[in-house]
Amino acid sequence: MTKQSIVVPEEMLFLIPPPAAKTVSATAPQPGPFPPPRSAAFTANYKKLMTHLDLHGNSSWAETMKTSSPTHLRTSTSHSERDDTDWNRNHPSALYRFEEIAAAAKGKKIVMFLDYDGTLSPIVDNPDSAFMSEAMRAAVKNVARYFPTAIVSGRCRDKVYSFVQLAELYYAGSHGMDIKGPTKWPKKHRQSRVGAKSVLCQPASAFLPMINEIYSVLLDKTKLIPGVMVENNIFCLSVHFRCVEEKRWIVLEEKVRSVLASYPELKLTQGRKVLEIRPTIEWDKGKALEFLLAELGLSDCNDILPVYIGDDRTDEDAFKVLRDRGQGLGILVSKFPKETCATYSLKEPSEVKEFLRRLVEWKQYSLRVQKKA
Ligand SMILES: O=P(O)(O)OC[C@H]1O[C@H](O[C@H]2O[C@H](CO)[C@@H](O)[C@H](O)[C@H]2O)[C@H](O)[C@@H](O)[C@@H]1O
């Protein structure tokens, strides 16, 4: 089992106090140090989590399948409000702490990385209907006017493009294994891009025949389980169990594992009510982030602030890259406390939209001030 297959067990999900106002108010917490430090209690919880999970493949998948996408508030919990407060202190709202983020961004070039499902669009039962709102599209479009922006998704690139429909963005589909540059450039860059190739990176292309083959096998093997949906994400596959009765999850997992047994070059990980089949190559959303920074010529710059916003376990690879670089900020989208390498949190896509809107507003204001000076 790989790092991506780590899930938060139910007992590590604590209730968060009710959502607060979306704008910074006089009563909002005052900006603290950047990035906010982690408390001893948080570190203890993290250790507990790591002890609970067997990272070498023996932990119960059935258990993790149950907790892979909590959608309701727990009614009973062994954790106290103090734990919730502790989590919130360690992963404060990026909206509440907007002033702090703006201060950190001053004089820096922001580079924006956005996950799709659960970040720009709400989680829905049918993956084909995970549309983003027009308001969200406008917010992303505006962000891309000021900052290089990439969508980094587990979906295949064409599919996520069909949802987002903005030609001015970078798209890293199939968990970053299929990266394409913008097809529409701002005027000032247009000339220098003539002749530049738009597909930038496909590190798993050798796996295409194998992925296609296993896709057909999985369709066949799972067809009798009501509610299963197998999605072909080109360089990886998703087996959705959100609409499968819970009592059939074990059977499904066993079927998927039995198919995979003949393909040691592929690995199985978990996302939100989804089993993901991916090549065993050393590539993930974190690597995609690093690749895109290099492509933008920003890898070794001190004056950049990469911002990555995502909701799922696969996004942790990108949060970790930022943490290890000691540069930029990860923002986890979650209504529930979860173990994460992200620094800040937002509760849901509507808060992501508000955050993007405020970032643009702040940038426009900074440019006006700069012009006057
Ligand atoms: O990296 P992402 O853009 O977040 O993609 C991860 C997976 O997202 C999609 O599945 C998830 O969203 C669906 C629609 O809301 C939901 O029905 C499903 O339960 C979630 O797991 C996508 O369909 C998968 O292929 C991606 O791997």
Q: Describe it for me?
A:
Mean pLDDT is 83; it is low at 1-33, 42-59 and 72-76. The chain folds into three domains: 3-15 and 36-90, no CATH class; 98-203 and 283-372, Rossmann fold, CATH 3.40.50.1000; 206-279, Alpha-Beta Plaits (2-Layer Sandwich), CATH 3.30.70.1020. The chain has an eight-stranded mixed sheet with strand order 5-4-3-2-1-10-11-12, with helices on both faces. A four-stranded antiparallel sheet has the order 6-7-9-8, covered by helices on one side. It has helices at residues 40-52, 61-66, 81-90, 98-105, 134-146, 157-164, 187-193, 208-222, 249-260, 285-295, 316-325, 349-372; strands at residues 109-114, 149-152, 170-173, 178-180, 199-201, 229-232, 237-240, 266-271, 274-279, 304-310, 329-333, 344-346. The protein is globular, with a radius of gyration of 21 Å. The protein is of the alpha/beta class and 373 residues long. It contains twelve helices and twelve strands. Bound molecules: the ligand O=P(O)(O)OC[C@H]1O[C@H](O[C@H]2O[C@H](CO)[C@@H](O)[C@H](O)[C@H]2O)[C@H](O)[C@@H](O)[C@@H]1O. Residues 62-78 have a biased composition (Polar residues). Residues 79-89 have a biased composition (Basic and acidic residues). Belongs to the trehalose phosphatase family. Its cofactor is a divalent metal cation.
Strand content: 5-15%
- The CATH architecture term of the largest domain is 3-Layer(aba) Sandwich
Tell me the CATH topology of the largest domain: Rossmann fold
Low-confidence parts, pLDDT < 50 over ≥5 residues?
1-33, 42-59, 72-76
Mean pLDDT: 83
Radius of gyration: 21 Å
* Count of all domains: 3
List each distinct ligand once. ligand L263DTV3
Largest sheet: 8 strands, mixed
The sequence of SSEs as H and E is: HHHHEHEHEEHEHEEHEEHEHEEH
| End-to-end Cα distance | 55 Å
Overall CATH class of the largest domain: Alpha Beta
| Bulk shape | globular
CATH superfamily of the largest domain: HAD superfamily/HAD-like
Order of strands in the sheet with most strands: 5-4-3-2-1-10-11-12
The helical percent reads 25-40%
Strand tally is 12
Number of helices: 12
Kindly name the structural category.
alpha/beta
